[in-house]
Structure prediction request, 572 residues.
Amino acid sequence: MKNKLALIILSVILLASCGGNKQKNEKSVLSQPASSAVEKSSTQTEHPGKKVYNSVCLVCHMADGSGVPGMHPPIIESDFVNGDPKQLIKIILEGMSGEVEVKGEIYNSIMPAQAHLSNQQIADVLTYIRSNFGNNAPAVSPEDVQQLRK
Amino acid sequence: MKKLFPALFILFLMFSCGQEQKSVQVGDPDNGGLTLPEGFSALVVADEIGRGRHITVNNNGDIYVSLAQHSENKGIVCLRDSSGDGKADIIQYTGQHTGTGIKLHKGYLYFGADTAVVRYPLTNGELVPGDNWQMIARGFPNERQHEAKPMAFDGKGNMYVNVGAPSNACMEQMRTKGSPGMDPCPLLEYSGGTWKFKDDVLNQDQMVDGVRYVTGIRNGMANFWNTAVDELYVVQHGRDQLDQFFPELYDSKDNAELPAEEFFLATEGSDFGWPYCYYDHLKEKKVLGPEYGGDGETQERCETKSDPIMAFPGHLAPNDLLFYTGNMFPEKYKNGAFIAFHGSWNRAPEPQKGYFVAFVPFDGALPSGDWEIFADGFAGTTEITSTRDAEYRPCGLSQGPDGALYVVDSNKGKVWKIMYSK
Prediction:
């Protein structure tokens, strides 16, 4: 009986530690794929601004935000994106044209106004680009956008 | 009899000397990163000279490259190879304009600044042109889109200037979903075609002295006068964003391929249909654009517009054209066309394409076979998602006095010389 009990206890401990180990192992082995799992789960709850970006802005500013040399400026680490939200909202509502310097390069082109987007869509896309593509600036709200609509 | 030997010796020396000079220029071991057909090689003439646009080579081998941007408006880069190895060892910047068009003609360097065509005087033997430029043609609109003004000369006293339309498809509101196409499109009165001027009359105004030679071309910055048949040829940048403005008719895969980039034989008076029509190379017909009620099938007024002589996949961006008249390349290239495809942006989110120099064989006025990629490898990678992934983008072409083909890149300003030897 004593032996049996010892055996059971031992096997419980073994099982538990085994399970524990397994979990641990999984974690360390999966440390790389785990990040893709995180990505996957974040695409499931994708930032609403990403959808707007992909359907409206991507064609000119590219999937990685790097733009087109000599034609469409990058939005990566851009002062316009990180700077005054009013100026940024105006670029979307009114478009932009004329000579402009972005990341040390001159552009002299035209961005069409995107005023057909809703306040929510503009707030979403700007909040999205301000927290991606190497940018780090506070969110933009639909109310901020409404204030600048003419 | 005894005197014959030294004479022969001298002859031999002269001969071998000539040979040696010829064989001095060899391609770089890696052909400057390019892949070329059998028997061709390339050397890098210059690198990082600025964002090159077009290029022209003088009879003495001097090279001129236009820049669209320069901090002091010195938009002309002058390059000379004084040692004979093909590599430029003298590089100088000059001029007071920036732009795209650049061509040597009648002892002047003609320059297509975006709102005017000017010319700088050249002095025999001197690399750098004089500063006292003259105005040839002016009054062009600059609306910051399709503003390049390359010129072609017919050798009969005329100059043909591309005037791109500052628009995608003549929508009322620029590139805005739901905005209808203007009908008739008022932009066609002063753009969207090729204008003809006298080649050495000063101060011509586009709307007063210029003649609209052909119309219905959205942006034809690849233009060239083919002396073999005495006709103007133009390759058009086709319209963008079909899927964005008309998602019910086109998806992003359709948009990546459509519409074709069209190669035109631009006989006087032709109308190629922009903005009302575009060419679908898969259906092999001109169809009505969706801004004008088209559904991708209907032809309507497009039935009577001039078709292209060849069609390329969408958005490859033909930025320069040249008909080859040299003697260096094999027979098949004679009088055929080289086209520099700058490479796409509007294929996103599909992979980008282009970034090569294509060749089209010709027999008389028309192509005699399909097009092929002649020089590739500019991008340095085969997977291009964003346009910036491409390291170099071929933008301008010129033929050297020895029959070599020069190519200039717009990203960093690399210049290649492509040669052939048996």
Summary: Chain B has one domain: 35-170+183-420.
